[in-house]
Design a protein that fits this description.
Number of helices: 18
Helix content: 25-40%
Oligomer: single chain
Distance between the termini: 26 Å
Order of helices and strands: HHEHEHEHHEEEHHEHHHEHEEHHHEHHH
């Protein structure tokens, strides 16, 4: 989801960037400056037991200054794109330009069934050349990495940038946005879309009801209670995909306890949850919505699109999601809905301010180590990090990429996306991003399962903390976990 995770089942979703990106991530604010920002990159094969020799000689041509990987004319590229909230028209536009400029044609597959369609191909040693590995049916990046099936992307990141060959590709990327693709210190997935996560509301509904954007948790609850009195749900969430409500829970923990509380979870601290005042306060705050009957009726049993559509029908004041939401809901959103992004409101004494947001990158693109056309795949991703292709993406998908100043200012963004640009500027350096979702998918799933029980009132916050800590402790026993660490 953003993705990764359920978020992605809308697209991308995710899951996120890094706290490591937190300091630098918003030097991106400057980058976000005009209304633009954005993109991504890729590479070689050593990390997962692949290398250029694994590709067919027929797909490797002569290298040159303009063609550093030797992408061969008349070769073919096998492209698979998660067709969720961002659609796949942007990729078709890229592929047409790739054929026009390099003479490389492509086989295009747009699907939401990533695991169903691709797991058999990975198992058979016949994967595609490049994959947008996202959505609810994403093949988890940490699993692919552990199985030696992903290319280390260092070579692409160190290649000359399309827009300024005197610089490396990595030099033109918003700081911190590569971190979401890290596995044991290697970047093996490139999260292409600049993403923020939090709450969303309708500007039209708020204006009609006289509600003001809540900055404190008490103000948030007051709006939910007023909504309930008027026959409107307070908070909607995508019940069948508890990834989404974890956006709210985890954001509350990070904002209450600061970056140390976030890093304790990513670093598998024995007091990440049980023994953490911030974790206790954060989950209790979210549970208050459940306890007071402020959830949109039925939301626990709905898919992401079902909950989101009811929210678009003004049946709830707020919903949790990432910035793919607007694009995913285009057909269901009334023209005058005026979609707006809202950082998570804060509890008294929170270490991070209201303006702080979870921000970073989502929508992981990968190159399988055994891709047949490795040279073509590397060059394709290098071009994804050009201003031309980043702008193509923004036009087709109404979203920003991780390339700095990567979208032409002439591109008009829709209200929700524009509000994320403004929120990013307001956040400044106050950004954060969990990495356990990328590093430890099994642990993440266990915490989501606990959240599902919590929102259905089958367990209380104390039990949620216990289950979340048990997931952390189990993960910490894996010796490989020691290779992932945040300072």
């Amino acid at each position: 989801m953003g993705s990764t995770s359920a978020e992605n089942d809308s697209t991308t979703g995710d899951n996120g960037s890094t706290g490591v990106g937190r300091r630098d991530l918003i030097k991106r604010s400057a980058a976000l400056g005009l209304v633009a920002v954005p993109s991504m990159g890729i590479l070689s094969a050593c990390a997962s037991g692949g290398d250029d020799e694994s590709s067919d000689d027929s797909t490797k041509g002569a290298t040159s200054k303009d063609n550093p990987f030797g992408a061969a004319k008349d070769s073919k590229l096998d492209v698979v794109i998660f067709k969720g909230g961002y659609g796949d028209d942007y990729a078709k536009a890229w592929e047409a330009d790739f054929q026009k400029k390099l003479g490389i044609s492509s086989t295009h597959t747009g699907t939401q069934e990533i695991t169903g369609k691709l797991q058999p191909r990975f198992n058979a040693g016949n994967p595609p050349d490049i994959v947008d590995d996202s959505g609810a049916q994403q093949i988890k990046v940490d699993v692919l990495y552990k199985n030696g099936q992903l290319l280390d992307l260092a070579e692409v990141l160190d290649a000359p940038a399309i827009d300024d060959p005197s610089k490396k590709v990595r030099d033109l990327i918003i700081p911190g946005t590569l971190d979401a693709g890290l596995q044991e210190g290697k970047i093996v997935a490139l999260n292409y879309i600049y993403t923020v996560w939090g709450l969303w509301y309708s500007g039209k509904l708020f204006k009609e009801k006289g509600w003001e954007e809540p900055k404190t948790w008490d103000d948030f609850l007051a709006i939910c209670q007023d909504a309930k009195k008027q026959g409107i749900g307070g908070l909607a969430h995508q019940g069948k995909y508890p990834y989404y409500i974890n956006v709210a829970i985890m954001d509350m923990i990070a904002k209450t306890g600061g970056l140390d509380a976030m890093k304790a979870i990513d670093n598998l601290d024995p007091k990440a949850f049980v023994g953490s005042d911030a974790a206790k306060a954060g989950v209790e705050a979210i549970y208050e919505v459940v306890e007071k009957g402020l959830l949109m009726p039925g939301t626990n049993g709905l898919t992401h699109t079902e909950s989101q559509t009811r929210w678009n029908q003004y049946k709830a004041a707020f919903i949790t999601s990432g910035s793919w939401l607007e694009n995913e809901q285009l057909k269901q959103t009334p023209d005058d809905f005026d979609m707006k992004f809202l950082p998570m409101p804060v509890l008294a004494g929170s270490k991070l301010p209201f303006e702080a947001i979870r921000a970073g990158s989502g929508e992981p693109f990968i190159i399988p180590a055994k891709a047949k056309n490795l040279a073509g795949a590397k060059e394709f991703m290098r071009r994804m990090l050009s201003k031309e292709w980043s702008t193509m993406f923004a036009k087709e998908a109404n979203s920003l990429t991780i390339l700095k100043d990567g979208v032409d200012p002439s591109v008009q963004l829709r209200p929700g996306t524009q509000s994320t640009v403004e929120a990013s500027k307001a956040a400044g350096d106050n950004t954060f991003r969990f990495l356990y979702t990328e590093w430890y998918s099994e642990m993440g799933a266990a915490i989501e399962a606990a959240s599902n029980e919590l929102m259905a009132k089958r367990i209380q916050p104390a039990e949620w903390l216990k289950r979340a800590q048990a997931a952390v402790d189990k993960q910490a026993k894996d010796p490989a976990s020691k290779k992932n660490h945040r300072d």
